[in-house]
Amino acid sequence: MSWTDERVETLKRMWNEGQSASQIAKELGGVTRNAVIGKVHRLGLSNRTGVAPQPAPAAPAAPAA
Fold first, then answer.
1. Residue 33: exposed, middle, or buried by beta-carbon count in 10 A (0-12, 13-18, 19+)?
2. What is the DSSP letter of 47?
3. Cβ atoms within 10 A of the Cβ of 15, count?
4. Which residues contact 23 (CB under 8 A, 6 or more apart)?
């Protein structure tokens, strides 16, 4: 299997839609999850374009007695 322009575009689209590497590999066929992850890294797509979940705010400190 080779990474044709069409397959790379499909990978980019699905990655930006939030699909998992496993889902992308299944859709493309002929590639593994690890191959998708490697290609994502080489394309510089490692950071999703969506909003990352924000950490919960810290609990307020208890008043000193």
1. middle
2. S
3. 21
4. 14
Q: State pLDDT tens for residues 16-49.
A: 999 999 999 999 999 999 999 999 999 999 776 5
Q: What is the DSSP letter of 50?
A: S
For residue 39, how many other CB atoms are within 10 A of its CB? 20
- In the numeric block, which tokens belong to residue 50? 């969506």
Q: Cα–Cα distance between 25 and 20 in angstroms, integer?
A: 9
pTM score over 0.85: no
Report the Cα 53 to chain-centroid distance in Å.
14
Q: Residue 34 is encoded by which pair of tokens? A: 């690890």
CA–CA dist 61, 65 (Å, integer): 12
Residue 16 · residue 49 · CB < 8 Å? yes
